[in-house]
Amino acid sequence: MRVYKLNDIPCIYFYPENLGIIDYLFDMRIRKELSKRPRTKKEYLKYKWDCLLKDRKDLFFWMILSIIMLVGGIFDSDKELFVQYMIFFTLVFCHQVFRLIEGYKKYVHEGKNN
């Protein structure tokens, strides 16, 4: 531990009593360690985006599916069904945009929680 500190090498430490909450502690400690060193700012930003993508991995699937269904519905001959498709998939798309914004605020945006 002393060698890492003397050489200014970012490192996080865990102790046996931390094993029950290791997911929480890892995230908290890695954010703290990466944010305080100028040379690790790029890694810190990458870590935050990775956290967002890991948590919201299905988000882009639903956004793309919604767009495909909306575009595909334009060519449908049944206009009543198209309106139902349009309403449903517009709501799905809007919900996914909301999830993306909330995830960005939670994981990437420099707020009080980071």
Report on the architecture of this protein.
By secondary structure, this protein is mainly α. The chain has a domain at 56-114. It has helices spanning 2-6, 22-35, 41-55, 59-74, 79-108. The relative contact order is 0.10.
* Overall pLDDT metric: 83
**Helix coverage percent:** over 70%
Strand content: under 5%
Q: How many H/I helical runs?
A: 5
Q: Quaternary status of these chains?
A: single chain
Shape: elongated
Task: State the secondary-structure class.
Answer: mainly alpha
Q: Helix and strand succession?
A: HHHHH
Distance between the termini: 25 Å
What's the Cα radius of gyration? 21 Å
Give the low-confidence spans: none
**Biggest pleated sheet:** none
Strands, total number: 0
Describe the structure concisely for a colleague.
It is built from 5 helices and no strands. The chain is an all-alpha fold and 114 residues long.
List keywords for this structure.
0% strand; 114 residues
Task: Describe the SSE topology.
Blueprint: H1 2-6, H2 22-35, H3 41-55, H4 59-74, H5 79-108
Helix pairs in contact: 2-3, 3-5, 4-5
